[in-house]
Specification:
This protein is mostly beta strands and about 70 residues long. It has one domain. Strand 1 and strand 2 form a beta hairpin. It starts with 7 loop residues before the first strand and ends in a 6-residue tail after the last strand.
């Protein structure tokens, strides 16, 4: 018999060489909504981009990566 389960979403914030794991505040929210939710705590998320999801250890991992560049 085939049994389907929904994978847990995990969000990874990559900032200055560090990775911070963020919990899913609401599974029904879109990835962009989750990013906006955490932007109050982590302002770098206001200019971040989301990488393609990856399945790892029965979780779906989304990585928020800063797109800040240098001036000039």
């Amino acid at each position: 018999m085939l049994l389907a389960t929904q994978l847990k979403r995990v969000f990874i914030l990559k900032d200055k060489g560090q990775e911070i794991e963020l919990n899913d505040p609401e599974p029904k929210w879109s990835v962009e909504s989750v990013m906006n939710f955490y932007a109050n705590t982590y302002p770098i998320l206001t200019t971040a981009k989301v990488s393609a999801p990856q399945i790892n250890d029965d979780t779906i991992q989304y990585k928020f990566e800063s797109v800040m560049g240098t001036k000039g």
